Amino acid sequence: RGRGARGLRDAISLRALRVRALRVRAPRRRATTARGMNKYADDAPQSADKCIGACGEGWLCEVSEMWKGQAMSLKIDEELFRGRSEFQDVYVFKNSAYGNVLVLDGVIQATERDEFAYQEMITHLPLCALNEEPKRVLVVGGGDGGVLREVTRHGSIERIEIAEIDGMVVEMSKKFLPSMAVGFDDARVEVNICDGIKYVGDAEEGTYDAIIVDSSDPIGPASVLFEEAFFKKMHRALKPGGVVCTQAECVWLHIDLIEDLAKMCKGIFVGGSMAYGYTTIPTYPSGQIGFMMCSKPAADGSTVDFTKAKRFPRPADESALKPMRYYNPQVHAAAFVLPEFARAALEPHLVPGSK
Questions:
Q1: Do residues 254 and 19 make contact, with C-beta atoms less than 8 angstroms apart?
Q2: Which of 1, 87, 151, 349 is the most buried (most CB within 10 A)?
Q3: 239: left (phi over 0), alpha (psi -120 to 50) or beta
Q4: CB half-sphere exposure, 341, CA atoms < 13 A
Q5: Given strand 208-214, what is the order of strands in its sheet?
Q6: Beta bridge partner(s), residue 82
Q7: Is the backbone of residue 8 left (phi > 0), alpha (psi -120 to 50) or beta?
Q8: Crossing angle (nearest 10°) for helices 251-268 and 228-237
Q9: How many helices (H) and strands (E) are present in the chain, helices listed first?
Q10: Is the four-CA dihedral 44, 81, 5, 202 of positive or negative sign?
């Protein structure tokens, strides 16, 4: 879910998205910038320096304005890498409970122990719901390779492209998260180290069956992945009947942000369908993160019912991937059953699919 890792986690354009409240609440604080719905857009990203030792010596404490008053903490058993790319702070360490941990701008993006809960769901919820088997898929962000790994499970796909802005994330993931970075090894994968927004904008109209945005939270530079202009470009780049799935934060922390995202998508994917599903993952804030899924109407006017899995991932015969550990058809259906406060906030803005 990162700026190259766990995709749409800190911005409202879509890898660091998270913060919300109950349905009955005080008037929400609006952004003072043109970003409008995303009140975190102008917050400055932080570095791991702010988080290391914040809760105790030898611990990383995930302190952020996006989840005030709480913080996930992991003990740093061994520091593996610490540096800064052109775009962000990159930190990797080993933890006895979660294995190797990737941190971008002070926010946990992936751990060896629980990453599959995020990667499998952000990938298979949209791809298994498609009415036709996908042939061409684009991943925006996802530099750790986890989403790529899951996309390659679909043997029908002929071409997989990734547009990741930060080459250092790819390099460090290959070195320290090899079970995720295996996604880069598939012959169908085309790696583009570039601006994902420009890459989508340069695509010909009607290019992709699916676009998966594995972004960081909507803070600072990553906020553009949650903006209207980017979603319009994705809509244009989709084939009729195609789908977009983007990281869409946590209902416990960011229900207002998710609601605004849903409203925006509804105005762009006119005639299409929209759904919000989620997964549980212990090292993400409050242990939950969701995905906003939108479909473009097919030529016959039909739209994707995301709540129904039409197929199970069928890898190519030569695939050496290990079996999935989170996703199955029952979990697929359950992912769209929301607690009442979240259902009440989001349902008015979501659009059921026709098949």
A1: yes
A2: 1
A3: beta
A4: 13
A5: 189-193, 159-164, 136-141, 208-214, 238-247, 288-295, 273-280
A6: 91
A7: left
A8: 60
A9: 10, 13
A10: positive
Can you tell me the distance from the alpha carbon of 200 to that of 285, in angstroms, rounded to the nearest whole number? 29
Residue 283 CB partners (closer than 8 Å, separation 6+): 72, 74, 98, 101, 108, 111, 113, 114
pTM of the model: 0.87
Alpha-carbon distance of 35 to 276, in angstroms, equals: 22
> Which of these, 185, 187, 184, 237, lies nearest to 211 by C-alpha position?
237
Residues serving a catalytic function are 214
Q: Which single residue is written with the structure tokens 């975190």?
A: 40
How far apart CA 249 and CA 77 sit, in angstroms, is 29
Residue 153: which of 174, 130, 128 has the closest Cα? 128
CA proximity to 301, closest of 272, 339, 265: 272
3-state secondary structure of 354: coil
CA distance 17 to 5: 12
The Cα 281–Cα 113 span in angstroms is 10
pLDDT in tens, 107-161: 999 999 999 999 999 999 999 999 999 999 999 999 999 999 999 999 999 999 9
Query: Residues with Cβ < 8 Å from 298, sequence gap 6 or more?
Result: 131, 240, 241
Residue 210 to residues 206, 241, 257: CA-CA distances in angstroms?
10, 9, 23
Who's near 45: CB < 8 A, 6+ residues apart?
10, 16, 88, 89, 105, 106, 219, 220, 221, 222
| Residue range 32-87, pLDDT digits in tens | 233 455 665 555 557 788 888 878 899 999 988 889 899 999 999 999 999 999 99
Percent helix, percent strand, percent coil in the chain, to nearest 5: 30, 25, 45
